[in-house]
């Protein structure tokens, strides 16, 4: 269906979603949003573009190079097209909804645009869908967000879901407790990312056995927690483990159709994250379906801000993890039927397609229009039945 | 809720939709799209940005000054943020769906962005929702599109709908038949727009009585058609009247919960329109809910293209024309309820809000969270009942 000449009509990394994919994406987004709404997450819709500086606060600063900028002729100020909706949510919580009760539960769904595609995700535009839970520091809040992500994804049909829980500050917390020089933190993180025990031993000195133990601890939640319990952790690191254990306990109660794993040193380079973070994967699907975790919303250079957690789902990955819906039956209404002929069928879930000009061969026309049935009298006759009878 | 300082956080004409408005808009869009889908209109989703030149073809050229432009670092070509989705639909029909059967029925819903707001519509971003019916020149196609617009709008609760049918080429067709100098066409159109019979008489010469008759003909469809029939129209103008009469006949006025009017000289300055066009209004709502009509899709400087008709709805106006939905019942689940406590209530349409920390006053916390009920044992107790009993 797509040849190179037609692809070249659009810039790299941007695409048209055609039938039935566009409807499938939209319906899936609304099902996810309904799931979030049912647990009190109220939808907000920030604009596609806003002043550049408000897009670059907090977590947004990591995406500074990914934002398309345009001059606003009205204000004569630079605006940016959002590359991520979460800074917008933090802005709304800190300003327009500053006086709303906490915890504040918000949801969002919208398009984001990036200057360049990534290696794993060549798309430069995708639909981002997620929630934010603002003003709740408790592990019950982390657990609610993880549970909701898992229930929403399994609810739309994702099979083989894995939730990988991480403690993004663990590496730093241990380094600080052992007094490791800060200039070794970067190389140490890289060695841990490579899972390279020799390099870790060289860089971490006295902390090396503990880092090795943290590396080895990764795995299925119950087992990982047992291995973490057996480690001689500094107090702050032990507090992190207790947090993730609390989260696992609440998730267990929810009886989710998902595997929960823990990788205590995974951090994904998102230096704004604190506490428990997580990534969502489906068996056989490349890349993550989404990710989330704890951070401080609305903090600026002077600190401040509120404890927050949340997650974003990337719809291109999510749609790869679920089956497309069954195509509804399509009924052809031959020319002259009149506009009310299809109503009872549509009320029953059929799609009707009205003939707009007299047909020489109504069955052929019905077939060309992708219909499975044709109206004769008051009945929907399958096209196949007509072929078999030679009618 | 909104003060000036908070407004100034966003550029003029751009806004955050807050709860419950954002969910209301999204749900209304999906209800409209479901209506279009049921009659065979398949959803497409073009990207937010694409190469500038493809946004400026056909009807798109009228919006050239409204498009924000960004340089694509990948292709080193200029891209534009769409100000209107219809040129994108025409591009898709002419390229990716060039070999799909005609008539081709497509639907779309998405955000569009404009450099400047208008007098009547200060918003610079709004949700555009609509359909295109491509490759069908028949009046039955015009009628289907008008009927679908009316049924979709009344289906979501619009009351007092008026469909105003227009013949945007009528002024020119009459002028040509009477050999009026082309340099008088602009002033003549303005005089007709002002409904200024003195100026029309001065500018239109021998055609003045006919233009006066066309001005007078405007009104309720049946009466307008009778008045148009009584005029001595040139052949091409008579053909236009026959087209609009056909459309009115096929729409089946008796079955439509809308008033249909005809204004034969209204043209709204959209010089790409041909045949029958229309605008949609609701009683008591400022501005149009949407508009549409016939044009040639995919034509370039060399002509070509396909007969097409369709319409766009502007969601900001549409939402002003319908009642907001009733807020669902909100049930507070006190701290410690466990994640499955709310499931049966959510399945029944409740919204549940989980307490994340031990409450000193659960009822006050429930109220702060906007809940109408609180869970006690297995029951949802109205907060008001608790207050009355002093519990």
Short description:
With 391 residues, chain A is an alpha+beta fold. Chain A has helices at 4-7, 21-38, 52-55, 86-94, 139-155, 170-177, 185-193, 197-204, 208-217, 221-229, 235-253, 315-320, 343-347, 362-368, 383-389, and strands at residues 42-43, 49-51, 69-71, 78-81, 104-113, 125-134, 161-166, 219-220, 258-263, 274-282, 290-297, 306-314, 330-333, 351-354, 373-376, 379-382.
Shape of chain A: elongated
CATH hierarchy: architecture of the largest domain in chain A:
2-Layer Sandwich
* Proportion of beta-strand residues of chain A: 15-25%
Structural class label of chain A: alpha+beta
Tell me what the structure shows:
The structure is a homodimer of 391-residue chains. In chain A, α7 runs antiparallel to α8 and α10 packs antiparallel against α11. In chain A, a hairpin with a 6-residue loop joins β3 (69-71) and β4. Chain A folds into 2 domains: 4-320, 2-Layer Sandwich (BirA Bifunctional Protein, domain 2); 330-389. Chain A has 15 helices and 16 strands. Chain A has 391 residues and is of the alpha+beta class. Chains A, B: L-histidine binds at residues 84-86, 114, 128, 132, 268.
Secondary structure layout:
The structure is a homodimer of 391-residue chains.
Chain A: H1 4-7, H2 21-38, E1 42-43, E2 49-51, H3 52-55, E3 69-71, E4 78-81, H4 86-94, E5 104-113, E6 125-134, H5 139-155, E7 161-166, H6 170-177, H7 185-193, H8 197-204, H9 208-217, E8 219-220, H10 221-229, H11 235-253, E9 258-263, E10 274-282, E11 290-297, E12 306-314, H12 315-320, E13 330-333, H13 343-347, E14 351-354, H14 362-368, E15 373-376, E16 379-382, H15 383-389
């Amino acid at each position: 269906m797509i040849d190179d000449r037609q692809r070249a009509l659009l810039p790299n990394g941007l695409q048209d979603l055609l039938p039935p994919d566009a409807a499938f994406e939209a319906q899936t987004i609304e099902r996810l949003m309904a799931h979030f709404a049912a647990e009190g997450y109220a939808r907000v819709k920030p604009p596609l573009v806003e002043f550049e500086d408000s897009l670059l606060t907090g977590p947004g600063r990591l995406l500074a190079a990914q934002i398309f900028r345009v001059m606003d002729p009205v204000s004569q100020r630079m605006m940016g097209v959002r590359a991520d909706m979460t800074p917008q949510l933090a802005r709304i919580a800190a300003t327009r909804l500053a006086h709303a009760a906490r915890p504040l539960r918000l949801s969002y769904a919208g398009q984001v645009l990036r200057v360049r595609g990534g290696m794993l995700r060549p798309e430069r535009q995708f639909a981002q869908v997620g929630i934010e839970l603002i003003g709740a520091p408790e592990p019950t809040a982390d657990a609610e967000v993880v549970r909701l992500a898992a229930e929403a994804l399994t609810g739309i049909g994702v099979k083989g879901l894995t939730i990988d829980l991480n403690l993004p500050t663990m590496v730093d917390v241990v380094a600080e407790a052992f007094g490791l020089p800060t200039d070794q933190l970067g190389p140490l993180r890289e060695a841990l990312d490579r899972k390279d025990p020799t390099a870790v031993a060289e860089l971490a000195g006295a902390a090396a056995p503990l880092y090795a133990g943290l590396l080895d601890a990764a795995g299925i939640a119950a087992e990982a927690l047992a291995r973490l319990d057996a480690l001689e952790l500094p107090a702050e690191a032990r507090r992190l483990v207790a947090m993730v254990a609390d989260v696992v306990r609440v998730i267990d109660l929810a009886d989710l159709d998902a595997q929960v794993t823990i990788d205590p040193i995974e951090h994904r380079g998102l230096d704004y994250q604190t506490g428990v973070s997580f990534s969502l994967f489906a068996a056989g699907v490349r890349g993550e379906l989404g990710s989330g975790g704890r951070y401080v919303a609305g903090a600026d250079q002077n600190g401040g801000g509120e404890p927050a957690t949340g997650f974003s789902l990337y719809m291109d990955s999510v749609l790869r993890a679920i089956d497309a819906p069954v195509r509804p039956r399509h009924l052809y209404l031959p020319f002259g039927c009149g506009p009310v002929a299809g109503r009872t069928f549509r009320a029953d879930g059929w799609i009707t397609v009205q003939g707009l000009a007299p047909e020489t061969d109504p069955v052929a026309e019905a077939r060309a229009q992708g219909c499975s049935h044709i109206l004769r009298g008051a009945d929907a006759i399958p096209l196949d039945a007509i072929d078999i009878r030679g009618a």
